[in-house]
Amino acid sequence: MPSTLLFILPFLLLYTVIVVYAERKLAAFIQDRLGPMEVGYYGILQTVADLIKLLQKEDLVPAGANRLLFKVAPLLIFVPIFLGFSVLPLSATWSSSLSTAAFFLLAIISLDVIGIVTAGWASNNKYSMLGTMRAVAQIISYEVPMGIAVLCVVVVAQSLDLQEISTQQGIFNTSVSPMLGIKALPSVTPNGGFLAWNVFRMPVLFIAWVIFFIASLAESNRAPFDLPEAESELVAGYQTEYSGFRWAVMMLAEYAMMLLVSFAGVILFWGSWNTPMPNLGSWNLAAWTTGQPGTIWVHVWGLFWLISKTLLMVALQIWVRWTYPRVRIDQLTTLSWKFLTPIGFILLLICAAWKLVLI
Amino acid sequence: MEELLLYLLIGVVALSALTLVFVRQVFYAALALLACLIALAGIYGIMQAGFLAVVQLMIYAGGVLVLIVVAIVVTNREAGQPLRVQSHHRLIGFCVAALLAYLLATAYHQTEMAHSGVTSKELKPLGEALFTTYAAPFEIGGVLLLVSLIGAALTASAFKKSAP
Fold it and tell me: Is A241 in contact with A132 (CB distance < 8 Å)?
């Protein structure tokens, strides 16, 4: 899809430059430091300087590594994640027409582990191998609760189409959507706003979102689940041997994964491209901040709300990273298999029963 | 355009399948299998079977292949040498392959391929058919998976007990 290449790729690069800076600043503020201050005003060009330094570095391949696979692996990590962006709806009239988009997203996210295994195996390094094994154990475990959390939304929305799921959460909705999922209360569709979002129109989905968020942290190898690249024990895990541009691609893939799971979380749970402001009496806030279909404003507002909410989610991920300590590998698998998965199944049952009986 | 893409994908499938057979190093073979499976998913997608394409990606590329790759990585460098495969029983293998090809070719010629007209937009009929007309095979498949899951858990726990 051309819009992915023309819009998402430049956006992704710009986003990475900004978010790396934001992450360093946020980390500094959380630890009561100032963070990067030297390059540019308030250190704002620090990432650009780092990027230029990275691009100048020598492209090293270790002597004992498998040359071909070592060179291909960063692309194998990045390409599946980038493909995931191609199915996201960006505004009310701008989306892919894939009717199984939610399922496709889950499938494509699980493919990047092959790239990670290839990178770790081709490096021929003990730290890389250990990081790889951890990455695989982690990503395979966390796909299960994540899939169940997405399934809860799919059961409520009765669709796998991300655009259909998005439309249901706003004023363009055509199906019945009672307030807080209770039939006796009036429909939220004419008012729109935040009450029409999935987490509010079906309050159980908020717990499903918590599961989704925890699983998405593990899926993108972020703290407190950054075991595959734990600096204090494994140097840098599967990316230990990489340098220069190839390492930059791996970092880009990690930040792209953060963005992708945040997009998915916002689209599935937090109202997608819909405005948070409801229509109140003669104040048609929702209509004003959505734009008329067919005009450019529907794209502008849609992108604005979608991207602002997504960046808030990314900020939440960064906040979590600098707040919680890293878990142990057995704690990580225990959390996934013994807690998140059973809770997810119970939620799925509740959502299905609620959908059948109450709505 | 679509036809061109279809032939391209068929070429990728054939080429990667041949690579899979002839390459000596197991890890390369696994990656060739990955290319083969993804190209197959692409063919399903072009043939308007979007759901089948995503299932192919999810189960074969994302599930089965990841397990194969992990198994290779874990067992690989035991002797310090990468695992390589050799071919044995070439004559018998060739005979079996020829027989299978003959079987597939006759089956292909004897069935009429009707264009069903069902597009990927229509997921509902598929789901309804799975739970009404084809409920029994669907449930048997589920039971089979459950049995293998319990078996795997049992095997793993027995292994743990026997370890010192």
Answer: no
